[in-house]
Write a structure and sequence with these properties.
605 residues; TIM Barrel; Immunoglobulin-like; Jelly Rolls; 3 domains; eight-stranded parallel beta sheet; 14 helices; 30 strands; 21% helix; globular; binds ligand FHN
Length: 605
């Protein structure tokens, strides 16, 4: 059976269907074959809470991208390919015969499975997911199905998946395998290599039968019980083919999880887009794969590391919204995890170890958006992760109805008082010197809380798009690549149309106060200087939104490069505490292409 080449598939505009993302529907083809950014249709993925119970307990995992591309480190023929480094074969259009030669010199003698497992444990990660075969087609395990594998084709001759599986058992961690089921640039019959082969002329079913299925069978048969198989970029794989692979996994290892990137709405849980962190709690079983810098695989030049605080906050954001956070490391061609990333992980790990109860196995926040940070829950205990420390020593928690039995900050008892719907938590004015200070509230009974939104004095408040009442506009996911393969996400108010066009937020304030109003948005040239307005009680502001230099295509690899800008549009005064309503929208008929990423209320000091 023939399968359409990935590029033709894109040209047919089918990406939108596969991705299920609003942006894809807008821009189907302009991606230079980065078509692999197909994360699979997720709507309808049935969360398997029985098979997946451990994933929720884990909440924090190590993702590892390691293959022949690690030996190249982002460089081919003296040219650096900036962007995700595991894509170098496709980016530099390296012929299969040349790329195969990399195997001949790949000898990662610094690889030490125990050290990797120890790093994951030091970081308090509970499972590891590693690339057994990425799109390059090279098996990082002994395979009878193809001699193009690390044992048979390299001087290294060892099976690192075997060593890692044994080290994981010894260290008490689960191990799962990434397997690129659709793209295999080494194979004529698979998808993705259209520089050596004419994709579409090949027989995809034959590739599945002769390579993918036997290799997945090997991974499920030779490495003990595995956590799961992590599929990726399903592209044009058919529902029957996806289902065949799901059944293969579950037949051989009924406990093993399959992620939604198997495609066609199948899988046991959802893998969100790369680096995608939802803004609000999300039901079901899901995970966010995240990078520590801008690439998954090792790239010699990429030192754009996220800081330990940034990573800890991203972990907490994911967990407080109900997901599992998978943080990537990219070992180099010698088998060493770059020391800089190891250091960052250990730093994050120190914090997680000290706050294990607040992360592993916790539930999502019971509250609406909290201006100062996030909340996770375990039974009758709440954990308040304070990103913005209150300068006046009073942390305000709105919406908690249950009685507090005991409150602590980093183990030290602290006082709380109740003022109507608010819990006022007294904390030292000096912020504890750790990545994220955590206040623990032990409740006298089960959590009773409301999701009402509040604008709090002393904090930067964001009005979340997902909780606004909308007329003549909608919330759209805007996703783009900053560098090649380096995905960024924004949820925006967009699609302004009709006679009434507005977004209205209902929230409460707790005391009188003045706030700057900042609007973060993108504006193309044709909507330059359109007039917008904000109404909130006695406050009426109008202002122009000006061109942000928005670009819808880019020279390097197609796709769009949205340019967000933050504009301070005025000051809003709340004279009295209580219920407020803020309405935002264009005042006339212009501005229909403006996308608004955030409205923020920043206290006027
Ligand atoms: O194309 C791959 C990419 O190389 C990387 O493996 C990421 C990790 O989530 N998945 C695909 C793109 O989304």
């Amino acid at each position: 059976m023939n399968i359409k080449p990935l590029t033709a598939f894109l040209e047919a505009g089918l990406l939108a269907l596969t991705l299920g993302h609003a942006w894809a529907a807008e821009k189907p083809a302009a991606m230079d074959g980065t078509s692999a950014e197909m994360w699979g249709k997720r709507d309808g993925t049935k969360t398997n809470l029985v098979r997946g119970a451990w994933l929720k307990d884990s909440r924090f995992a190590m993702f590892i991208h390691w293959g022949l591309y690690s030996e190249l480190g982002g460089r081919w023929n003296d040219t650096t390919q900036y962007g995700i480094a595991e894509w170098i074969m496709r980016r530099a259009q390296i012929p299969v015969t040349d790329y195969e030669k990399v195997a001949g010199r790949f000898n990662p003698t610094n690889f030490n499975a125990q050290e990797w497992v120890q790093l994951a444990k030091d970081t308090d990660m509970r499972h590891i997911m590693i690339t057994a075969k990425h799109h390059e087609g090279f098996a990082m395990f002994k395979s009878a199905a193809s001699p193009y594998n690390i044992v048979d084709a390299t001087p290294f001759k060892r099976d690192p998946m075997k060593e890692l599986s044994e080290a994981c058992v010894a260290g008490g961690l689960r191990l799962g395998f990434y397997y690129s089921q659709t793209q295999d640039w080494h194979e004529r019959d698979a998808v993705g290599n259209d520089w050596d082969f004419k994709n579409g002329a090949g027989d995809f079913q034959r590739y599945l039968k002769t390579k993918a299925v036997p290799q997945i069978r090997e991974l499920l048969s030779n490495y003990g019980p595995i956590a799961g198989v992590w599929f990726d970029t399903p592209g044009p794989i058919t529902p029957e083919q996806s289902k065949g692979l799901v059944d293969l996994v579950h037949t051989l290892q009924p406990q093993a999880l399959v992620n939604s990137r198997i495609g066609n709405g199948l899988g046991d849980y959802e893998t969100l887009g790369d680096q995608e962190i939802p803004r609000l709690p999300r039901p079901g079983l899901w995970e966010t794969p995240d990078t520590a810098n801008d690439t998954w695989a090792y790239a010699w030049y990429d030192r754009d590391w996220k800081s330990p605080t940034e990573i800890a906050e991203r972990l907490v954001r994911v967990v407080s919204r109900g997901g599992t956070y998978m943080l990537n490391v990219g070992p180099d061609g010698t088998g060493r995890i770059p020391e800089q990333s190891a250091r960052i992980l250990r730093e994050v790990g120190k914090w997680v170890h000290a706050h294990e109860d607040a992360i592993h196995g916790t539930d999502a926040t019971p509250f609406g958006p909290l201006a100062w940070g996030e909340c996770t829950a375990r039974g009758n205990t709440l954990f308040l992760h304070v990103f913005q420390w209150p300068a006046d020593g009073k942390l305000v928690l709105p919406g908690l109805h249950s009685k507090v039995k005991r409150a602590t900050l980093e183990g030290e008892k602290i006082k709380t008082v109740r003022e109507e719907n608010l819990l006022i938590i007294s904390v030292p004015k000096l912020r504890p010197d750790i990545l994220i200070p955590v206040v623990t509230l032990e409740l006298a009974g089960p959590v009773e809380a409301s999701r009402e939104a509040y604008v709090l004095n002393g904090c930067r408040n964001t009005l979340e798009m997902g909780v606004a009442a909308l007329k003549g506009c909608e919330v759209k996911a805007v996703n783009w690549m900053e560098k090649f393969g380096d995905w960024k996400h924004m949820e925006c108010l967009a699609g302004w149309q009709g006679s009434e066009r507005s977004a209205t937020w209902a929230f409460k304030t707790v005391s009188p106060g003045s706030f700057y109003l900042d609007v973060e948005y993108t504006c193309p040239a044709e909507d330059d200087y359109s007039e917008w307005g904000i109404r909130c009680g006695d406050n009426n502001l109008t202002f122009p939104l000006i061109d942000t230099g928005e670009r819808t295509t880019r020279k390097a690899f197609g796709g769009e490069l949205p340019r967000f800008r933050t504009y301070r549009v005025g000051v809003i005064d709340f004279q009295k505490p209580g219920a407020q309503q803020l309405t935002f929208g264009p005042t006339g008929t212009e501005g229909k292409n403006i996308r608004v990423a955030a409205l923020r209320l920043i206290p006027v000091e």
